Structures are given as structure tokens and as C-alpha cells.
């Protein structure tokens, strides 16, 4: 006799939860074991249609990865609930379905080069086995429970619900602990990661003394823990520095391969560089300034010998993700590009690309800032498109001139003098001026703080004599070449957002 629909749905949900929870726990406890949730999420990212990236970033910002993980888990649980309905006649039907889904997810996880195939298979067995055991436990051999849960004797209903709740709690705890361990694994440093980076041969100049101290304005240098993170990885890769290497190949005279220790042994340079994500909306926070330490990219290319005709440099991540930009950029605005190994006086952390990444002044990250870098290929612009280009983003990605109001962002402010302050950036061109407009009045010059260099943002401030009422503040900047920020409004796609940032405030 078959179990009720309610019992089947509950049994399927719990079985799916047990499988997912155990798979997360295994991934958290054992290096190179896959998270099946992350594996499916990564596939979703790679199959995304044009425009999906901007839509998700606009909705969730840098919480997009958490949302996708939760979405994948929710879909998996819904599927498990449906399998529970089919398992009402025989728990083995649902068990086979769960095993098939687990096997498919395990195969998908093999797209990640860090996943061990044996551990992927073992994870699929754990998920399939635990799901089958749970279904058999809750539904029973051959569908013993013939009546709906609401019509069972009290002792039978309590036993079923108690078992379901207990197993569900176990799934939540196991999955939560596994995800916690996954996201807090240290970078796999082997014996190569130094406690501190070698002293740079070309240290950065000392930071200028800030002259703008308005509360809430962005700092000259963003702390690493507060720096934005946008990439396609649902789970931060943990690369092993003792086995990592960087290869420079393609249209070069000599293929060059460097281990992590060999890279650190090269002369290191420090540079303050502002980088930005092309998805950043006007006034958004997907931009930041940091001190980067690394080997000058130009020096490595000179050593390899770039052949005539090589017009594009392609950076590849450990898993094949790519970004490409014109080699001519390195002869001009991007001459200070680095293969970076450090950020803000510390080795790169895993979030920001350990062991090494590319930092190219003046270019959006989607064409230049390859994290977890393992390969640099010299090719032509016509021969290859980076990851984001087929998805509708522009082939060239110079960072646009932008300015942002940090304070006040909105709400109410008291009448009298109000500090309107923020940052402006045009990496490689610098900022020569910032202006503020109140309502439809004349544009007024703001004061600029000291600039670190033309490659970084600058702070600005305007002392506004605020009168009671509702007002709209706007900001615009002029770069170091005399070009005024564009007023026309565009979406971030395909080559960056344009327009003036506004803040609406109520003066009381």
C-alpha cells in the first residue's frame, strides 16, 4: 500500500536534505572533495545568457554567490520532494532518482580541476546511500504507511514526524558545518607561502597625509577585508603554492614557466592602483583602491620575448577562465601592470587571487584582472575572445571617468554647513577637478584631497550651506587630460555605466 502524498513529500525533502548536508560536510572536511551545490551553481554560471550577470549583480551585489547557492539547494530540495512522491509506492524509486541526480552533480564537479575524481565518486555514493536510507526509514519497505499523516494513530504520526524533524535537523547542522568549513579553509600554501613577502625592490612612495576627514568618506586605501569581490567562483579556490606555476606562452620567443618561489625571487614592485568592476552602477561600491605588490608584467614579457603581431594578452585562471586585453595597453597607460602576489602589505588571500593575479591599471577587471592566474598567452585580438565577450560585453574595457557621493547618501541632514564628500577616479589619467551641483544651480568646485598617483582615486569635499527643504546633490569630475565626465546615462553593459551620481536629501 502506498504512503500518502504528504508523507512522500516530507520524506523526499528530508532525504534530499540529508544528502546535501552530508555532501557539504564531506567537502568541508576533506580537501579536493566536491560541493555538489557549488558544482551545479558553477554550471549555471557558465550557461548564463547575455545580460544575466548584470541583472544578478544589480539585485544582490556581491551577495550574488550566496543567493545562487541557496537557489541551487532549494531547487535540489524541490526535486527531492518530487522524487518522494514517486517513492510512495516503493522507496527504491526515489532512491534511484536521488542517486542519479547525485551522480550527475558529481560528474559536473569534475569540471573543477581541484576536485579529485575518486572523492567525487565517493561523494555521489554518500549522497545516494544516505538518501536511500532516509527514504526507507521514513516511507518504509513497500510503502507500509497506507494512511495520510493526519489519519495515522497518534503514536505513528508522532514517530514519523519526530524522525523527519530529527533527520532534517541533522541535515541542517551537517550542511551548515560543512559550508562553514568550506568557506574558511586556508589557502593551500604548502611550504612556499612566506610569513611576509620579500622586501620590494621598488617600494611605493609613502601615502600622502589625508586632508579630507569627513565621516563616511571612502579611505584612500580600502582594507583588504572590505574590498569588493566579483568573480564567477561560487567557492573560493584554494590553490597550493607548492605545486602552482605560471606559464607564459603563445606568440613568444621563449616559453617561460615560473614556480611561486621563483616568482617571489624576481624584483618586486609596489603600486597603488584603483580597480573597478564593469558591472558597477553609477554611485556603486564595486570599485576600490589598494596597494598591490608584484612582478612587473612588462619584465616577464620582455624575458619571454613577445613576437611581432601579438596584439592580445590573455590571462587564464586555474580552471580555464579567461580575460584578454590589447598588448598596446602595456606600452602606454597600463605600463605599470603587475603579476601581483600581495595586497596591502600581505600575501594575496584566496578571495583576491592567491597565489597570483593580474593587476592592469586603467582596465575593468573583466578584461584584465585574472585571479588565481596560471597562464599568460600572447595571441591576436581576432584569434580569441575572453570569457565575458561572447556574453555581450565589449572587447575593450577601459575604466570610465566616474565620481561618487559618499556622504550624505540621502535621508535627513541639519541645516547649516554640510560636508558633501566622496571619491572620483580615472585610473591612468588622474583627476584634475570635481564639481557639485545643488538642485539645478550652478556647478561649484569641490576641494580635492592629495592624490597618490594618476592610477588611484582621489577624495573630494564640498562645504554646502544647506537650507531647509528637499534637495538633490549631483557630482561630476574632470580627468587629468581635461575630459569632463559624461552626463548621458548608460547601463553598465557593454562597456561601463555613465551618468552623474545623485543624492536626495531632506534638510531639517
Percent strand equals 15-25%
Question: Would you tell me the structural class of the helices and strands?
Answer: alpha+beta
Number of strands: 19
Q: What composes the largest sheet?
A: 5 strands, mixed
**Count of helix runs:** 10
Write the element-wise H/E pattern from the N-terminal end onward.
Answer: HHHHHHHEEHEEHEEEEEHEEEEEEEEEE
- Low-pLDDT regions: 141-153
Q: Assembly state here?
A: single chain
Q: Helix share of residues?
A: 25-40%
Strand order across the largest sheet: 2-1-10-5-6
Quick check: average pLDDT? Answer: 91
Shape by Cα distribution: globular
Distance between the termini: 72 Å
Radius of gyration computed on alpha carbons: 27 Å
General description of the model:
The chain is an alpha+beta fold. It is 31% helix and 23% strand. The strands form four sheets. Strands 2-1-10-5-6 form a five-stranded mixed β-sheet. α1 packs parallel to α7 (154-183) and α5 runs antiparallel to α6. The model is unreliable at 141-153 (pLDDT under 50).
Write the layout of secondary structure elements.
Elements: H1 5-29, H2 36-46, H3 52-60, H4 64-86, H5 91-109, H6 117-139, H7 154-183, E1 245-250, E2 256-259, H8 260-264, E3 269-276, E4 287-296, H9 297-304, E5 312-317, E6 322-326, E7 338-343, E8 346-347, E9 357-359, H10 365-368, E10 373-379, E11 402-407, E12 411-413, E13 416-425, E14 431-438, E15 444-445, E16 447-448, E17 458-466, E18 469-479, E19 501-507
Helix pairs in contact: 1-4, 1-6, 1-7, 2-4, 2-5, 4-5, 5-6
Amino acid at each position: 500500500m502506498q504512503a500518502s502524498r504528504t508523507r512522500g513529500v516530507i520524506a523526499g525533502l528530508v532525504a534530499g536534505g540529508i544528502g546535501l548536508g552530508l555532501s557539504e560536510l564531506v567537502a568541508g572536511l576533506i580537501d579536493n572533495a566536491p560541493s555538489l551545490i557549488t558544482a551545479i551553481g558553477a554550471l549555471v554560471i557558465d550557461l548564463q545568457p547575455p545580460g544575466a550577470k548584470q541583472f544578478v549583480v544589480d539585485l544582490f551585489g556581491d551577495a550574488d554567490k550566496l543567493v545562487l547557492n541557496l537557489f541551487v539547494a532549494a531547487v535540489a530540495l524541490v526535486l527531492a520532494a518530487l522524487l518522494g512522491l514517486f517513492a510512495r509506492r516503493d522507496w527504491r524509486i526515489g532512491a534511484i532518482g536521488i542517486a542519479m541526480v547525485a551522480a550527475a552533480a558529481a560528474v559536473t564537479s569534475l569540471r573543477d580541476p581541484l576536485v579529485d575524481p575518486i572523492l567525487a565518486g565517493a561523494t555521489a555514493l554518500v549522497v545516494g546511500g544516505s538518501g536511500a536510507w532516509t527514504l526507507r526509514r521514513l516511507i518504509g519497505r513497500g510503502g507500509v504507511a497506507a494512511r495520510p499523516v493526519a489519519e495515522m494513530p497518534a503514536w505513528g504520526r508522532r514517530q514519523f514526524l519526530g524522525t523527519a524533524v530529527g533527520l532534517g535537523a541533522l541535515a541542517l547542522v551537517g550542511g551548515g558545518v560543512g559550508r562553514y568549513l568550506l568557506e574558511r579553509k586556508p589557502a593551500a600554501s604548502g611550504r612556499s607561502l612566506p610569513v611576509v613577502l620579500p622586501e620590494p625592490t621598488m617600494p611605493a612612495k609613502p601615502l600622502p597625509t589625508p586632508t579630507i576627514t569627513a565621516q563616511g568618506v571612502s579611505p584612500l586605501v580600502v582594507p583588504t577585508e572590505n574590498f569588493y569581490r566579483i568573480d564567477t567562483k561560487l567557492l573560493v579556490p584554494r590553490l597550493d603554492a607548492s605545486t602552482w606555476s605560471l606559464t607564459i606562452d603563445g606568440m613568444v620567443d621563449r616559453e617561460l614557466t615560473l614556480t611561486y618561489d621563483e616568482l617571489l625571487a624576481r624584483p618586486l614592485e609596489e603600486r597603488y592602483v584603483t580597480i573597478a568592476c564593469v558591472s558597477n552602477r553609477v554611485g556603486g561600491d564595486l570599485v576600490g583602491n589598494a596597494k598591490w605588490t608584484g612582478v612587473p608584467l612588462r619584465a616577464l614579457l620582455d624575458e619571454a620575448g613577445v613576437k611581432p603581431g601579438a596584439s592580445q594578452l590573455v590571462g587564464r585562471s586555474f580552471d580555464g577562465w579567461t580575460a584578454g586585453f590589447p598588448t598596446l595597453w602595456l606600452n602606454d597607460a597600463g605600463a605599470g601592470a603587475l603579476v601581483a602576489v600581495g595586497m596591502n602589505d600581505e600575501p594575496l588571500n584566496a578571495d583576491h587571487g592567491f597565489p597570483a593575479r593580474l593587476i592592469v591599471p586603467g582596465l575593468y577587471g573583466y578584461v584584465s584582472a585574472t585571479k588565481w592566474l596560471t597562464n599568460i598567452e600572447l595571441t591576436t585580438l581576432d584569434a580569441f575572445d575572453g570569457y565575458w565577450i561572447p556574453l555581450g560585453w565589449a572587447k575593450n574595457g577601459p575604466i570610465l571617468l566616474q565620481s561618487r557621493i559618499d556622504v550624505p547618501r540621502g535621508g535627513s541632514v541639519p541645516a547649516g554647513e554640510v560636508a558633501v564628500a566622496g571619491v572620483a577616479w580615472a585610473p591612468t589619467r588622474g583627476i584634475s577637478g570635481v564639481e557639485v551641483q545643488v538642485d539645478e544651480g550652478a556647478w561649484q568646485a569641490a576641494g580635492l584631497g592629495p592624490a597618490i598617483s594618476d592610477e588611484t582615486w582621489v577624495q573630494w569635499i564640498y562645504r554646502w550651506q544647506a537650507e531647509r527643504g528637499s534637495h538633490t546633490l549631483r557630482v561630476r569630475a574632470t580627468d587629468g587630460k581635461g575630459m569632463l565626465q559624461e552626463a548621458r546615462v548608460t547601463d553598465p553593459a557593454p562597456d561601463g555605466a555613465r551618468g552623474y551620481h545623485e543624492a536626495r536629501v531632506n534638510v531639517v
